[in-house]
Amino acid sequence: LLHYPPSLEAACTDNKGPSMFAYIIIALSISVFLAAPLHALSTGPACKVQNQETKRYAEEAVYRRRFVLNTLIAFPSTAIPNAPCLAANLPKYTGADLSKTGTVDSLILIVRIEQTLINVRSVLSGSIRTEVVSPSQAKSICNVLAKDIPRDEMGFKRVFDEYSDPVSYKQKFMDQNAFLVYYTRGYDGQNRPPMESDLPSRQTLQYGARNDAWGALDDLYSELEYALKDEGEIGDILDLMDKAIDAVRNYLSLAPVADLHEARSRI
Question: Buried b / exposed e across 178-216, counting CB within 10 Å, b at 16+?
């Protein structure tokens, strides 16, 4: 009978059907209608009021009903919080020590990940003569990788975040005020360039490359963990290692050449 705005519809329903809140709204709506005299809901000649006092009461009842209904419709859109947004424009904090940002010491840890992958791939392709990797071989590979490459996502990304450029104050401001930035087209004052025109590009590239590296490593670990229970295809594992090596190298290509050379020389 009633058409609620989208915000109310979202608050009243979920993936499993109408919520308890929806039933409460319906019950309140019905009770409001029943609270008014029935003759106040009709406009037919036979139902017209016979005296001034009853007419005034009927009019007040109609206005009360309209007020309550409008309140019920408008209240959810303003007072009921929307569902939390699941998207993330900025990377989550991983607990990285930002005092090491851009240092060779923090870069060494990432270079060590690259070198470990290269060494394991070389041994794997040269020592295994069959087309499959046995559970014992998969366990040995996992143990070697785990020495320098964290298995958990936060631990892995923390290694990269300690070297990467941190999120700037300007990026945080734009993320927290995305609605304003979008509708003003990034207006930053008269005779000033838009906010989005000079965002730090290297930071965005670093975090994108970091995520690609984690995705490749996660796929590799998943394949090896499957091989712990059953035999794994050596070709699939080598392909995943190649993707992981390429992803880490893509990140390292963003570092200064001199720093990268020094980091490799110190391993």
Answer: eeebeeeebeeeeeeeebeeeeeeebebbbebbbbbbeb
- CA angle 114/263/155 to nearest 5° reads 50
Q: Virtual CA dihedral for 78, 81, 85, 88, nearest 10 degrees?
A: 90
pLDDT tens-digit profile of 245-263?
A: 999 999 999 999 999 999 9
Of the listed ranges 77-81, 137-141, 206-210, 260-264, the least confidently predicted one is 77-81
Helices 135-146 & 104-127 angle (0-180, nearest 10): 160
Q: By the 8 A CB rule, do 149 and 158 touch? A: no
**Phi and psi angles of residue 132, each rounded to the nearest 5 degrees, phi first:** -125, 160
Residue 160: which H helix or E strand, with range? helix 153-161
At 152, list the tokens. 């958990």
